[in-house]
Amino acid sequence: MSEILRIRGGRPLNGDVWVSGSKNAAVALIPAALLADSPSTIDNIPDIDDVDCYRNILEHLGAKVRFEKGSMYIDPRGVNKNELHSEMVSRMRASYYLVPTLMGRTGRAVVPMPGGCNIGNRRIDQTVNGLTMLGAKVDISDGVTIRAEKTDMYGGNDVRLAMPSVGATINTMLAAVTAPGETHIYGAAKEPHIVDTANFLSSMGAKVKGAGTDVIRITGGVPLHGSNYTVIPDQIETGTLMIAAAATHGDVRIHGTIPLHMEALTVKLLEAGVDVRSHDDVIEVSSAGILRPIKLKTQYYPGFPTDLQQPMTALLSVGWGTSQVTETIFENRFVYLDELRRMGASIDLVSNATAVIQGVEKLRGTAVTATDLRAGAAMIVAALMADGVSDISGVQFIHRGYEHIDEKLRALGAEAEFVQI
Ligand code: EPU
Q: Does ligand 1 lie within 6 Å of residue 94's CB atom?
C-alpha cells in the first residue's frame, strides 16, 4: 500500500482558509527550547512530519514533550544525551539546529549530517565557520557526522557569513546566546523565521538585537528560562494558497497571515494580473482573467522566496505568452519540471537556472510525483488547474511541511483527498 494525493482539477477555490504556524520557524524554536532551565510552551506549531520527527528526537534525548492542539510543551531538564543516530534525523534539514543547542546545554553534540529535500548541495561550511569562530571545536571529517564541543575559548566573537544562509544564521545565533560575551553576525539572513527565532530567544531572557537586518548582535552567556511563545504564520503555506487561488481563478481569503512577509509574491501576482488585497491579517486573492507572462528571480528575503519558485512556475505554465523564472539559491530546484511537462506544460530549462515557460491553454491531470516538499506544492497547484484527475505520489514530502492541506483545499471547494492505493 502506498499513499497518494488525488485531486480532480478545474474547480475554482472559493471561501476562507486559516494558515498554519511556520514550519521553518517551528523547527528552530523547538530545539531552542532545550537551552532553557525551565519548560517552554510554544503555540501555533503545525502538525506536520518534521515536527513529529523533532518530538521523537527530544523525547529520545530525555526531554518531556507534550503536543496537543498546536501547543507544544517542552521540559528540557531531563536531557541526558547528546548523540543522535542517522535514522532519527535523515528526513529533516533542521536537525542540525541541535548542534548548537545540545552543545550549549551539555558541552558537546554528535549529530548526523542534516537530511531534508534534495534541492542542491546544501553545504554547511558557514555553520561550521560560525561555531568555530565562537570557540567550538567542530569536526565533520568523516562526511556523515557533525561532532562539536565547547573549548576553553568558547565565547562571543565577530562572525562574517559568506552568504546570508538561513541555517548558518540560526545555528550561530543559537550558539552565541550560550557563548559568554559579544557576538556580531555580519551578513545574516533576514527571513521571517530568523526574526521569530530571535524573538523566542529574547522571550527566554537572551540579549539579541538586529534580527531582520544584516547584522545581529548578541550578548551571550545570560541564563535562559522557559517561555510561552506563539509561532508566526507560515509564509510559504500562505504563498502556496495565494498561488492556488490565482491558479484556479478563485476568490479566497487567507486568514492569520502577515501580509508584509508576502510582499515579493504579491508584487509578482499583481504584475501577472491577479487581484491581491490585504487588510490586517487577511489576504484576499482573486483572479478572473488569463494571466500575463512575467519574469522573476529567486532571492534571499525580502526577495522572491525560492520555496515559492516551484508553485509559481506551475501557475505560470497556464496562460498567455512566455514567462521566465530564474532560481539563484539552490542548484537543483527544477527537477519537478519533468512532472509538469507530463501534464502538458511547455517549459525549457536554460543553463540549469532559468525556466522559460510558454503558457499553454490547459494542463491535463495524470499520475505525477512530488520530488521534494515544494515540488509537492507545484504538483498541487498544477493538479488544481488541470482537466481531470491527478494522482500525486511522493506525499511523504507534502506531509513534512503542509498541515492538513487536503482538508484546507476541500474547505475551499476543491476535490482533494489522500488515498491509499
Ligand atoms: N550555503 C552554503 N554554505 C552554507 C550554507 C548555505 O553554500 O554553509 C548555500 C546553500 O548551498 C544554498 C544557499 O546557501 O545554495 C541557501 O542555503 P540556506 O542555508 O539559506 O538554506 P537552508 O537553511 O538549508 C532554509 C529553509 C529552506 C529554504 C532556504 C532558503 C529551513 C529548515 N529550511 O534552508 O526551506 O529553501 O532556507 O530560504 O529553514 C523548504 O521549506 O522547503 C525549504 C527547503
A: yes
* Whether residues 352 and 251 fall in one domain: yes
Cα–Cα distance between 90 and 358 in angstroms, integer? 37
Q: Report pLDDT digits (tens) over 295-305.
A: 999 999 999 99
CB atoms closer than 10 angstroms to residue 417: 14
Shared domain for 201 and 294, answered yes or no, is no
From 53, 74, 110, 117, active-site residue: 117
Same domain, 291 and 360: yes
Last residue of a domain, one of 230, 246, 274: 230
Element (H, E) at 195: helix 192-203
Residues 226 and 237 grouped into a single domain:
no
- C-alpha 414 – ligand 1 centre gap (Å): 32
Domain, as residue range, for 261: 3-20+233-420
Query: In terms of domains, do 185 and 289 share one?
Result: no
Residue nearest (by alpha carbon) to ligand 1 atom 39: 24
Query: How many domains would you assign to the chain?
Result: 2
- Examine the fold and report which residue of 230, 258, 281 is the final residue of a domain before the chain moves on: 230
The single residue listed with the C-alpha cell 502577515 is: 258
Q: Which of 166, 173, 185, 300 to mutate to test the pocket of ligand 1 (most atoms within 8 A of CB)?
A: 166
- Crossing angle of helices 235-247 and 23-32, rounded to 10°: 170
Based on the fold, state whether residues 255 and 313 are members of the same structural domain. yes
**What gap in Å lies between CA 159 and CA 266, rounded to an integer?**
34
Report the pLDDT value the prediction gives residue 397, as an integer from 0 to 100. 95
pLDDT band at 116 (very low <50, low <70, confident <90, very high): low
Q: Is 127 in the pocket of ligand 1 (CB under 6 A)?
A: yes
* Centre of ligand 1 from the C-alpha of residue 92, in Å: 12
Q: What is the pLDDT of residues 376-404, one digit of tens each?
A: 999 999 999 999 999 999 999 999 999 99
Q: What crossing angle do the helices spanning 166-176 and 23-32 adopt, rounded to 10°?
A: 20
Look up the CATH number of the domain holding residue 73. Answer: 3.65.10.10
